[in-house]
Give the backbone structure.
Amino acid sequence: MAKDKNILEFPLFYRIVPLVLFGFSAVGSICILLFRFEEWSFIIILMGFFGLPSLIMFILWSLWRVDIKDNGFIYRNYFGRRKEYKYEDLEYKMHPKGLIRNFRKDGKKVLRMAYYIENGDRLDTLYHQYIKKHKKK
C-alpha cells in the first residue's frame, strides 16, 4: 500500500496473489522433484502455467507507479521507464460508467487508470483544481 497520498500504485492484493501462486508452484515443483521424480513433466506444466506468469505479473504490477506533483505527474510504466507530464498539456476523459480514467496528450493515450488504483481520485482532484486555477482566458 502506498504510504504517501501522492503515489498511485496497484493495490497490495495485486502484488501478493501472484507471489503466493509462484510460491505454491515452487513448493509443488520441489515436492515433485523430491518425492515423485518419475512425474517430473508436471513441473513444466506447474511452472509454465502458474509459476512464471505469476512471477511476471508480480514484477510488472510492482513497477507501475504514478508520482503526483502540483503541476503534473511522473509516470513509471511496467518496464521502469519514466515520463513526466504537465497538467496543462493533458486532456482528461472519464469512462461513462466511471470505471476508467484516461489522460491524453496530443490525442495519444498517456495514462489509463482503473478505479481500483489506490489514491486514484487524488490525481483527478489535483488535475481539475490545476485546470480550474490556470484556466486560459
Notes: The chain has a mean pLDDT of 83. The first strand starts at residue 7 and ends at 8. The chain has three helices and seven strands. Residues 99 and 115 are 5 Å apart (CA to CA).
